[in-house]
Design brief:
Shape: globular
Structural class: alpha+beta
Number of strands: 10
Distance between the termini: 18 Å
Largest sheet: 4 strands, mixed
CATH topology of the largest domain: Butyryl-CoA Dehydrogenase, subunit A, domain 3
CATH superfamily of the largest domain: Butyryl-CoA Dehydrogenase, subunit A, domain 3
Number of helices: 10
């Protein structure tokens, strides 16, 4: 008997989700793909595209209908993110962070007042959401954060720095994690706050020059005597680490879904090129070496999608899925990077130039093994769940 008790949900996509997938694919072909390479070159944030996604009701997929969202769930979001990332991973991560890392924790842990104030605006795209956990000394060791929140009357005053914040200079709302009890063990003294980025004391620092995802913004932020009302404490006082880890389960499903989109783009580009490129008097698709690469890419993609959809279904069913989300993220991101490497190899010298999109896919793929927890951390999550 296996030591792992696997949940085996149905992955059948409803007609609603299939129609949504097709609609998103049309948006991708019409609105995203034509400008993806130029935005990557220019490091141009996709502001107008995000407005289009808001109009398509894709900004509130995890927000309850009572607060203006569609509440269509994590499986549907995974399907949508695969489609968006197929066309442009920069747009994909911006949408994923908004839904999975900002709107979701407010939906899951927020008070009625917090939900009423913020979720409708997030759902409409009036506010772009972000998530601030990582610090210079708190990366994989996320409980080691030092940004401090001190209680003063009916307010909390935040001081410190966060790094690697996706959309940090574009977001109107951010879930920020701070140390509220310096005497408590690391994970026990952290709280989560809902921060409006227009408040005095919120400052954007260094804008990162990245290898990939170059039309997504990644910045350093500083809190300098930033005052946050007590009613913006998200969840329980000193219960922020639970909020962070629960949110990362959803975020990891999002990055696994991103990996699927990039992976599929690599596969499609490789098939197209292999059929067109002639060597030794025939298309290179006729050579077994190329066929095996494509076969492995396709097999990995299907396996990654199954793992990702399983985790998404479990989260939709409120079944604990930290291990499954880690498995999905770990496998899908590694498979994506293998696919990107093989896509460049199949294209040969052409794949190393900007004349073909696999060069961009190769750069975008690399981050999937790093953010939302590096691959090694995913392995630790999986191993500890089996060995506890």
């Amino acid at each position: 008997m296996s030591v792992i008790e696997y949940t085996t949900p149905s992955f059948d996509l409803s007609e609603e989700v299939l129609l949504l997938r097709d609609a998103v694919r049309e948006i991708g072909e019409r609105e995203i793909l034509p400008t993806a390479a130029k935005r990557d070159h220019d490091h141009a944030f996709p502001a107008e595209i995000m407005k289009k996604l808001a109009e398509a009701e894709l900004m509130g997929m995890l927000i309850p209908e009572a607060y203006g969202g569609t509440a269509i769930g994590n499986l549907a979001l995974s399907v949508v993110l695969e489609e968006i990332n197929y066309f442009d991973a920069s747009v994909g991560v911006t949408l994923s962070v908004h839904n999975s890392l900002c709107a979701s924790p407010i939906s899951r842990f927020g008070s009625h007042d917090q939900k009423s104030r913020y979720l409708p605006r997030l759902a409409k795209g009036e506010l772009l959401g972000a998530y601030a956990l990582t610090e210079p000394d708190a990366g994989s060791d996320s409980a080691n954060l030092r940004l401090k929140a001190e209680k003063r009357s009916d307010r909390w005053v935040l001081n410190g720095t966060k790094i690697w914040i996706t959309s940090g200079d574009r977001a109107g709302l951010m879930v920020v994690f701070a140390r509220t009890d310096s005497a408590a063990p690391k994970a026990k003294g952290i709280s989560a706050f809902i921060v409006e980025t227009g408040w005095k004391g919120f400052k954007v620092g260094k804008v990162e020059e990245k290898c990939g995802l170059r039309s997504s913004s990644t910045v350093e932020i500083h809190c300098e005597d930033l005052e946050v009302p007590d009613e913006n404490l998200l969840g329980e006082l000193n219960g922020g680490f639970k909020v962070a880890m629960d949110t990362l389960d959803g975020g990891r499903i999002g990055i696994a879904s991103q990996s699927l989109g990039i992976h599929r783009a690599c596969l499609d580009a490789s098939i197209k090129y292999a059929k067109e490129r002639q060597q030794f008097g025939q298309p290179i698709a006729e050579f077994q070496a190329i066929q095996w690469k494509i076969a492995d890419m396709a097999t990995d993609l299907d396996a990654a999608r199954m793992l990702t959809h399983r985790a998404a279904v479990m989260r939709d069913r409120a079944v604990p899925c930290s291990r499954e989300a880690a498995m999905a993220k770990s496998f899908a991101s590694r498979a994506c990077n293998r696919a990107a490497d093989e896509a460049v190899q199949i294209h040969g010298g052409a794949g190393y130039t900007k004349d073909f999109p696999v060069e961009r896919f190769f750069r975008d793929a690399r981050i999937t093994e790093i953010y939302e927890g590096v691959t090694d951390i995913q392995r630790l999550v999986i191993a500890r769940s089996l060995l506890k």
